[in-house]
Design goal:
Number of helices: 7
Mean pLDDT: 86
Strand content: under 5%
Radius of gyration: 18 Å
Structural class: mainly alpha
Distance between the termini: 68 Å
Number of domains: 1
Low-confidence stretches: none
């Protein structure tokens, strides 16, 4: 057994160490994101590398590509947040109507295109896998990318995109044998809802304070 496939037993079930540690970093990423800490991005980068390895060993190509993209977007996010804060607290805001339309279009069109790509080149699940399974894998890949891009721009809406990804990510992870990832997706769901409320409340409080000063 190679080091990448090494596992530990938890409650009688073998769990890949890369899946376990990678998801610890993934959970930490959400916690740091709630606090708008720059540590969000190096922690996400490390977790993405570990989960990329776990996904490759589980033959879940879509999830593996998603993690590779997360690593790249983590670099972008760190740059955006560092530039956006400039020594001050990072300002968050809801997406504009145009940005929201772009997010939705990217999710829908991107999922369709990636599904065809995965299916044509047998990059997801196994040769001849049903379109529904391939589409689910593609949706997670595209949704994760869209959410992380929106997070890098400090858009409150990124939390909602993550909710939509989690709804598909849980059954896909369980079906692929990544038990820890599936369980973490469930935990993510609750954390993401809390993060959304926290960011939205903070935006409203900041906006009201600015209006009070202006008046």
């Amino acid at each position: 057994m190679s080091w990448a496939e090494a596992s530990v037993e938890i409650f009688g079930h073998p769990v890949k160490w890369t899946d376990l540690v990678g998801n610890v970093f993934a959970l930490a990423t959400v916690l740091f994101a709630m606090r708008k800490s720059l540590w969000t991005w190096p922690v996400q980068f490390t977790g993405a590398v570990l989960l990329f390895i776990a996904s490759i060993s589980a033959h879940v190509t879509g999830n593996a590509l998603k993690q590779a993209l997360f690593a790249i977007l983590a670099i972008y996010g760190w740059w955006r947040w560092r530039r956006g804060s400039q020594g001050h607290e990072l300002a968050v805001r809801p997406a504009t109507g145009r940005e929201r339309a772009t997010l939705i279009a990217a999710l829908l069109v991107g999922t369709a295109l990636v599904t065809v790509l995965f299916k044509t080149f047998n990059l997801s699940w196994y040769p001849g896998a049903p379109w529904a399974l391939v589409a689910a894998d593609a949706y997670i890949f595209v949704g994760g990318a869209v959410a992380t891009w929106a997070q890098g721009r400090a858009l409150v809406d990124f939390w909602i995109v993550w909710v939509l990804v989690d709804l598909v990510g849980v059954p896909v992870a369980y079906n692929s044998g990544l038990t820890v990832s599936a369980t973490v997706y469930v935990v993510f769901f609750a954390m993401v809802i809390y993060g959304f409320v926290k960011w939205l409340r903070e935006y409203r409080t900041t906006t009201q304070a600015k209006l009070a000063v202006a008046s």
